[in-house]
Each structure stands twice: as C-alpha cells, then as structure tokens.
Model the fold of this input.
Amino acid sequence: MILIIKHIEIEGPGTIEDYLLKKGYDLMTVDLHKGDSLPNDLVGVEAIVSLGGPMNVYEEDKYPFLKDEDAFLKKAIKEEIPTLGICLGSQLIAKASGAKVVKSPVKEVGWFKIDLQKSAQSDSLFKGLDKKVDVYHWHEDMWELPKGAALLASAASASGCPHQAFKVGKYAYGVQFHVEITDKIIADWCRAYFSSSDQEKQKKAKEMVEAYPRKRKSLGSSCNIIYGNFVQMIEARKKQLNLAAK
Done:
C-alpha cells in the first residue's frame, strides 16, 4: 500500500495518483486537514507521497497535524521507506531531517526550468531525465540542504530558487516543484490563492493555465520517468525485504 498525505483539499496527487493506480498499487489517502490520522506504524506501507499545501512547516500550533507528520516522516526515513515529498512535502522531509526551512530568495509561481546536478544523472529517482527540465512551481519557502543530503537540482536561472531537489538517506526525496500538476489543479489554485480583483494575477492565472496544453507532453514525459524510477525503488526494496525474510 502506498500512503498519500494531503494537507489541503485542492492540493491532491494529480498525475502521480493516476500513474500508481495504473501500475496496480493500492493507495491510501490520509486527509490531514479533515482530521484523518496517520498510521501508528509503517507495517504494510510500501511508499509515501507527501503533497503540498499553503502552510509553513513551523505553523504547528495552527496546524497540529504538522507535528504528527514530522514524527511520522522521521520514522519513515529511519526505516528506509521510499518517500517523495512535493513542495510542502519536501520542506517537511527536510525539517524531519534536521534542516531549516526559510524564505526562498524569490517566490516562484509558474513555469520555470530546473537544472539537474551531475549527481542526478545516475540517481535512482532522476536517471533518464534531460539536464534541464521545465516544471511548474508555486512556493515562497525553500528548504536548506539537510546534513548528509545530496542536492540533485537547482534553478536554471541565477535568480531562481537555488534548492529544487534533494535526497536524504537511502530512499527519501524532496522536490520543491510540482510534478503532479494538471490544468485543473492550476486553475483551482489560482481561484483559491489569487484575488479575483487583482487583474495582474488574473492575467497570470490565464497564462499559466493556457500554457499547460503546450507543456503537457514534455512535463508528462519527465514525470513518467520520475514516477517509473520511484516504482523501481519500491519494487527493489520489496525484493530486498523478501530476500531478508527467507
């Protein structure tokens, strides 16, 4: 079973859910914002996907579930469960690994390219991707690199967010950008997070949504490589556990 952690209704698993279901995995979605609880242990959990949200990782008084997730992710990293954190999810993994989450030097909202580091070319999650990847962003915070972690991607532009993807431990990854995005998700976020009276933001919203069909094929190709690599990690760990149990 793959556990999907949601922090707000409109930030769902999008294309990663579609991919995993087509591969035959059983998914369990925990809606923390609705009061769902995380499992008491990791028995039967093959992988974890922690999604985005508008909150800051330190707002534990306002969102008590963040404290529970922090403890849960620490356990998952220690037990080497394949874990992928997206945007807020990546920041939570970084915090659980002892790193600080700070304001990004630039608030990134829209389509921006990232540069993969040389180390990403042979990395289990990013192998097979082009050196530059065009992805969607919506964040104003960023993680600092956890101790012992590998930085795998940074902004292609010198003025962009320098920290875009990292790996910590054996199977835990954080990506600051949104691989799971769809045109509907972008539109939902614009309605929720942009004021309808702000003409500049409404123009930007229209441009971002209209760009999706042009970018969908390239984004889908990149995401399928990442998702496929994630599945390979899940299966490799299952095989190791089965061999160890014999």
Remarks:
- Residues 105 and 194 are 21 Å apart (CA to CA).
- The radius of gyration is 17 Å.
- The first strand starts at residue 2 and ends at 6.
- The chain has a mean pLDDT of 95.
